[in-house]
């Protein structure tokens, strides 16, 4: 199981940094599917590690001046309380239901990005960037925080598409800003999940061995890649894994 945890850490560390999602949403299905961890343990164990992975990747992105600090600040102020609410809800919502919900969310996010990429030529002129009000950011991010807390992740899987759709950030700006936000938003959920007994520190430690170096590598490769490539790959990876995970959990 130790080797498996390291491998999962390598793969999800790279993907989380490349796609700006912190990694918990990918880690959870991987831990459940390949290591056979109980639902709530698989759900919560990756969350503290998301803080470290996001911090490492953020260093690379910040050097390229891709982070929108204003949106990140308001996202934290709105998302952190939402995560607290959602985290406590995990104590009363069935674990299998959370696993299936994770799969559905991954699928919807993936499809959204694939459709946007394949129809990009229809929208030849990119939407101009906007400066959203604090109220607008809070209205968008607070529900994301609740859902992130319910699924025991830092919210990056939802923040990236939200930043692109509502705030018109480029995919790379959305990824960079999401990672910075995830650093802070993952903390309250991590503390609560640990208090609830859902975090396996041993598995998390082995995952960190692989995740730390691969997180930095993922961020560096994302910076060099074309935005079109990042968006399409994001959608394909999320959708494919979501379908596989949903089927395995439904049969389990």
TrEMBL record:
Pfam families, alphabetized:
TauE
The residue ranges crossing the membrane are: 6-23, 35-59, 71-90, 97-115, 135-167, 174-195, 201-219, 231-247
What does the UniProt entry say about where the protein is found?
Answer: Cell membrane; Membrane
Family the entry assigns: Belongs to the 4-toluene sulfonate uptake permease (TSUP) (TC 2.A.102) family.
Note the topology in the membrane.
Answer: Multi-pass membrane protein
This chain's source organism reads Desulfomonile tiedjei
A single cellular component GO annotation = plasma membrane
The upper taxonomy is:
Bacteria, Pseudomonadati, Thermodesulfobacteriota, Desulfomonilia, Desulfomonilales
Q: Does the keyword Cell membrane apply?
A: yes
Q: Which UniProt keywords apply?
A: Cell membrane, Membrane, Transmembrane, Transmembrane helix
Record protein name field: Probable membrane transporter protein
Q: Is 4Fe-4S among the key words of this record? A: no
